[in-house]
Design brief:
By secondary structure, the chain is of the alpha+beta class. It folds into two domains: 4-45; 60-124, no CATH class. 40% of the residues lie in helices and 22% in strands. The chain has four helices and four strands; from the N terminus they run H-H-E-E-H-H-E-E. The protein has helices at residues 4-19, 23-45, 75-81, 91-95, and strands at residues 60-64, 68-74, 103-111, 117-124. It has a four-stranded antiparallel sheet with strand order 1-2-3-4. Helix 1 (4-19) runs antiparallel to helix 2 (23-45). The chain is elongated. Mean pLDDT is 76; it is low at 47-59.
Length: 129
Amino acid sequence: MNYKLVLLGAGIGGVIGLMKDEPLKYALWGGGVGFAATVALPVIRRKVPMITMDSAAPSVESRTSEKLKTTTRKVSDLIEAGEEPPLPLEVIPNSMGINLSEVDSMTWTKQKKDGQLVDLTIHFNPYNP
């Protein structure tokens, strides 16, 4: 284990402690913070796959990972093609009370293995007074 951060934290804590007349207390505190950072950094540095989306959703978009498939469709394209998204379009005005003209698109993620829905996002048109 690399103790450079522990020593650095203890040193910085000791200097702060000199200003507050308690160098030992702050050196121990700084060393503890340095130790926590030494232990946590390998976990933080692990790469986690992320899917990011632009605010303006394209007409048809599909992103695929090993286990998931993410799809984005504009509401107008869904209506024209007669496609049925995981959340039926009639639910938005009938159950949510939101006019469909205010909805830009929908994005959903399904598991490839069994087709279960993992995530569903409704993208709204920006308000332009």
